[in-house]
């Protein structure tokens, strides 16, 4: 289960909406070994695409150095889908290289009549996708 604060949840959704129609992407870091998503880090989608996201390699290197200096790890890796449901694509699975992370997808497309976005979380390990419940606290 992903337990996330209302503040971080709202920040991820706001970023997805702000970057629409392009996909948004980012990381939420937390203290190493705790599994607590605390520090919201929006990233630039270097692909600037409505169907694909890509972290800028320089920004990503800087982020990992910063997390290392702060004894943090990526707890959430998130991105948005702008025209499809919030479910990992084959490309998303290929790029899922943090087996301990929660992969959050926010869809800014009204694909199911439930409203203006979906927020879903997955574990992706060795190509296997497992959806997990999301608990928003605070």
Structural key phrases:
about 140 residues; alpha/beta; Cytidine Deaminase, domain 2; 6-stranded mixed beta sheet; 3 helices
Explain this structure.
The structure is a single chain. The protein has 138 residues and is of the alpha/beta class. It has a single domain, classed as Cytidine Deaminase, domain 2. Helices cover 24% and strands 36% of the residues. The chain contains three helices and eight strands. It has helices at residues 6-19, 57-69, 90-95; strands spanning 2-5, 25-31, 39-43, 72-81, 102-107, 118-125, 128-132, 134-137. The strands form two sheets. A six-stranded mixed β-sheet has the order 3-2-4-5-6-7. A hairpin with a 2-residue loop joins strand 6 (118-125) and strand 7. The radius of gyration is 14 Å and the shape is globular. The two termini are 16 Å apart. The mean pLDDT is 93.
Which overall shape is indicated by the principal axes computed on the Cα atoms? globular
Level-1 CATH class name: Alpha Beta
String of helices and strands: EHEEHEHEEEE
State the secondary-structure class: alpha/beta
CATH superfamily: Cytidine Deaminase, domain 2
First-residue to last-residue Cα separation: 16 Å
Number of domains: 1
Put simply, the count of helices is 3
Helix content: 10-25%
**CATH topology, what is it called?**
Cytidine Deaminase, domain 2
**Parts with pLDDT < 50 across at least 5 consecutive residues:** none
Which value, in Å, is the CA radius of gyration? 14 Å
Task: Write the CATH architecture name.
Answer: 3-Layer(aba) Sandwich
Widest sheet: strand ordering: 3-2-4-5-6-7
Amount of beta strand: 35-45%
Q: Total strand count, please?
A: 8
Q: Quick check: average pLDDT?
A: 93
Largest sheet: 6 strands, mixed
């Amino acid at each position: 289960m992903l337990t996330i604060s209302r503040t971080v949840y709202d920040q991820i959704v706001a970023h997805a909406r702000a970057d629409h129609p392009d996909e948004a992407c980012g990381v939420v870091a937390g203290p190493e070994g705790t599994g607590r998503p605390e520090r919201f880090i929006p990233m630039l989608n270097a692909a600037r695409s409505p169907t694909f996201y890509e972290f800028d390699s320089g920004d990503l290197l800087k982020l990992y150095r910063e997390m290392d200096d702060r004894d943090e790890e990526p707890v959430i890796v998130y991105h948005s889908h702008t025209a499809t449901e919030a479910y990992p694509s084959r490309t998303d699975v290929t790029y899922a290289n943090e087996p301990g992370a929660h992969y959050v997808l926010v869809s800014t497309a009204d694909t199911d009549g439930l409203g203006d976005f979906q927020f879903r979380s997955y574990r992706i390990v060795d190509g296997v996708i497992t959806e997990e419940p999301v608990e928003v606290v605070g």
